[in-house]
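Table S4 entry, Dienelactone hydrolase family protein.
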Amino acid sequence: MSAILSRVCFIGWIACFVGSGAARASAITVSAAPVSSLADGRAGAFAFESVTPGQIIDFVKRAPADKAVVTGMLSLPRQAQGPVPAVVILHGSLGINPGEWMWAKRMNELGYASFVVDSFSGRHIAETEKDQTRLSMAADIADGYAALRLLATHPAIDPKRIAVMGFSRGGVAALYSSLEPFRKGVIDDDLRFAAHVAFYPSCGIHYAANHLDGAPVLMLLGGKDDYTPAAPCLDYADALKAKGAQVTVKVYPDAYHAFDRFTPLRAVSSATSARLCHGEYDLDSGRFTMAGSAGVVSGGEAKIAAQACLSRGVTIGGDPVGREQSPALVADFLKSVFAKDR
């Protein structure tokens, strides 16, 4: 990579980080038309096309969906030797905040490209914390795969070494994008993520499929998380392992939601949680089921049950142990994955 390109990438990242504010969400806004290829070696902020899925089964079957234009910020490491690995970074329910830029910087320092995706601004959404139905979780998965497809065209990025990392809502996308039906809903060839890193995803109502993409998965969970509890994710990890997946799980016992951040613990009374919900959406059959005291229900009854089990009020904030230890764990995981994919 040329010195000029390195400087452009670095300046682009700094401008975005400084403008994000100390404790508020930020948007990646782009006035230019969306790009379909990065063969020109560009970095910085740009728009690209994705879709906003309606029904999940329509998404995996590639039924017509609403087109969407989303944005992202690509930053390449300053000292790149040959095609480098890359990490797609997906945000949570409040949009991009300083935490995502912090992780982008860490990836660059490890020698990896980072691509922070803004799934909200292009869709004119400020947040989904109070109501997750404002945007299907599958939209984040679609954006992640659209980002993968785009990054694979960049001459400075190794298409076989692109991972996805997400937080909370973005963690949902990072985790369930390991399911092969989701990959095939966007990707036409054998392109796939090299790894999936999911911070505190929601697993109570989860997606399932018989076939996985084969990439290793790292899940980082908070033992005291009352927003997206760890227990259902531990069960889901066991289910993935039973299907042959390489899954590593780390639980920080005293950590709450967003434990990797530098924000103090705080109660958020308006946030909606599915912590009391137990359900599954089978991507192969399209069958949605919910489990409750009266047994397992499906179809319309399951949709009603999925709404009835929601609750409000969560705790969010950083944990010293989780915040200090998780960067090294992620770094070791990605180093191992990317070394194998050379």
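The chain has nine helices and 14 strands.
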